[in-house]
Design brief:
By secondary structure, this protein is an alpha/beta fold. It is 43% helix and 11% strand. The radius of gyration is 17 Å and the shape is globular.
């Protein structure tokens, strides 16, 4: 393990487009279901529903957070609807499972999705036993990343010293609050990022593939 990472005792990973390649395009299926949900809820055509959906995402961190802020919706109904997708685009990743097993310390998943969905994805990837726990949107009291409270709640729930933790995430903006509390930040720059923030001094490490990065890290 390189000296720069020797102090890390907690390894935290986002789920979607982080633990599997963005090219799998699984989240596109969820994204389409979100648009359908917004269209049905607000009686909008698909184009306008998508615009509204994306505006909620940009303004509130997730579509769900935006809908809850402006409308009275049942979050369980929303999450159940948007996560009702096939996962046959995902493949087991034995090399990633092996690399995670070799990491010293705790391993956690930190996702704006819900736990049932996260567990299905992890099982499909062959990572069902790779993580101690999943900290999901319900554990965040439905206030998602990048809200500071989501990170504080994660640290409180698992007794994490953020200065000894590392967070891996494909959405760069979700790394900024992690860096602010002292976490080491790793951006998975795989094309899934949807904002245009060019000032990313809160990113400590940029990678394009988590499996390859961890394998190289463990060899050093």
């Amino acid at each position: 393990m390189p000296p720069a990472f020797a102090h890390i005792d907690t390894w935290i990973f986002d789920l979607d487009n982080t633990l599997y390649p963005a090219r799998a395009n699984l989240f596109a299926l969820i994204d389409a279901r979100m648009t359908e949900y917004v269209a049905r809820l607000l009686d909008l055509d698909p184009v306008e529903a998508r615009r509204v959906q994306k505006q909620h995402f940009l303004n509130h961190g997730t579509t769900l957070a935006g809908l809850m802020a402006e409308l009275e919706i049942d979050p369980a109904d929303f999450l159940s609807y948007v996560h009702d997708i096939e996962m046959d685009v995902l493949e087991e990743n034995a090399p990633l499972a092996a690399a995670l097993a070799k990491l010293p310390g705790r391993k956690l998943v930190f996702t704006n999705g819900d736990k049932p969905y996260a567990l299905k994805v992890l099982d499909r990837l062959g990572l069902g036993r790779s993580f101690e726990a999943v900290h999901d949107i319900h554990a965040m009291d439905l206030v998602p990343k990048p809200a500071a409270s989501a990170y504080a709640g994660l640290c409180a729930a698992f007794g994490i010293d953020p200065t000894r933790a590392l967070f891996v995430e494909d959405m760069a903006r979700n790394l900024k609050p992690a860096k602010a509390i002292g976490m080491t930040t790793v951006w998975v720059d795989n094309g899934s990022e949807q904002d245009h923030d060019r000032d990313r001094d809160y990113v400590d490490v940029r990678v394009t593939d988590v499996t390859v990065w961890l394998q190289c890290l463990l060899e050093e």
